[in-house]
Design goal:
The protein is of the alpha/beta class. It has ten helices and eleven strands. The protein has a seven-stranded parallel β-sheet.
């Protein structure tokens, strides 16, 4: 049980450039930024968190951080969580969970992630990126960003990708909400009998619930941005996959509990975090792999820089952000 007494909170910013721009239908990500959080309990236990900022969200997160007292009682901090911006709520919830024993040797430590899907760059660069992956052993799951250039060109590239993809390979197509219903329907016509298609990820705008449901009746569809849309979609009848990005969703403890209980069809994905956030994503991905619907997580191997900011040791990450 958490001990009574104030919690001590401190934080510091980080920023890093991606090795190459991540091009999506919503633009290009070239760098990531956010804040690392250190929380010390009254018994001396340390918890670490990370608030990963989406582009344009930095000022909002910094303002919310500065409004948090550096010393406060746990009930007060828990009461503030629902009103915090989602990435900051993730950082606080993660730090509290670690103070309570998440990742400790007594609880089995931090679980390592299972093998990840490979993230292909958008456009024609996907073909060159695929070639070395074909030489690796083991099952191959690919994720390709679409809706980034002309549709006819992407349809042509799709045929080339499918011609190269092994019979036991799997393909995820991520439009980041960039297709309209007509375009998505045309892709569904081509792919609904394709056994290697794992799903279309967020093919339509986040708020187009009826369109997404109609598409999901034809072939597998995974929600991503819809899960963070306001208002959120009703999920009680959604039978498809959910792409879960813990660092963008708020307090991660409910997701942790759901995966520990064996919730199906939840795929864990990166928000391009530091080593502190990556520990959480890897741990949740391992729990997902132990559940009833195991699938490769989306950890974008090769898309994050090397260095101490991405180490497993939170003290090294903390020091690199100084």
């Amino acid at each position: 049980m958490p001990q009574a007494g104030p919690l001590q909170l401190c934080w510091r910013p980080y920023r890093f450039a991606l090795p190459q721009p991540l091009v999506t239908s919503q633009g290009a990500w070239r760098e990531r930024s956010g804040w690392l959080l250190q929380l010390q309990g009254p018994d001396g236990a340390l918890g670490w968190g990370e608030a990963a900022a989406l582009p344009g969200q930095e000022a909002l997160l910094e303002q919310a951080l500065r409004q948090l007292p550096q010393s406060l009682a746990r009930p007060d901090l828990e009461a503030r969580l629902p009103s915090l911006p989602a990435p900051l709520a993730c950082a606080v919830g993660l730090a509290l969970a670690e103070c309570d024993g998440l990742g400790s040797p007594a609880n089995g430590g931090w679980k390592p992630a299972p093998p990840s899907a490979a993230l292909l760059p958008a456009g024609a660069a996907a073909l060159e990126a695929l070639k070395p992956l074909l030489e690796a052993s083991g099952p191959l799951t690919l994720k390709w960003k679409v809706a980034t250039c002309g549709d006819a060109e992407e349809r042509r590239l799709l045929e080339q990708l499918l011609a190269l993809l092994p019979a036991d390979g799997r393909l995820r197509l991520d439009a980041n909400g960039g297709w309209d219903r007509v375009t998505a329907g045309a892709w569904a016509d081509r792919l609904q009998a394709e056994p290697r298609l794992e799903w279309l990820e967020q093919p339509l705008a986040p708020g187009d619930g009826p369109g997404l449901a109609a598409l999901a009746a034809r072939l597998p569809v995974a929600l991503d941005e819809s899960l963070r849309h306001s208002p959120p979609p009703p999920l009680e009848h959604w039978q498809g996959w959910q792409v879960r990005r813990p660092l963008l969703e708020g307090d991660p403890r409910p997701l942790l509990a759901a995966l520990e209980a064996g919730a199906p069809r939840l795929m864990l994905s990166t928000a391009f975090e530091t080593g502190i956030g990556r520990r959480l994503v890897a741990h949740l991905a391992a729990l997902q792999a132990e559940g009833p619907t195991p699938t490769a997580p989306g950890l974008a191997p090769g898309w994050q820089p090397a260095g101490p900011l991405f180490a497993a040791d939170p003290w090294r990450v903390w020091g690199a952000a100084a």
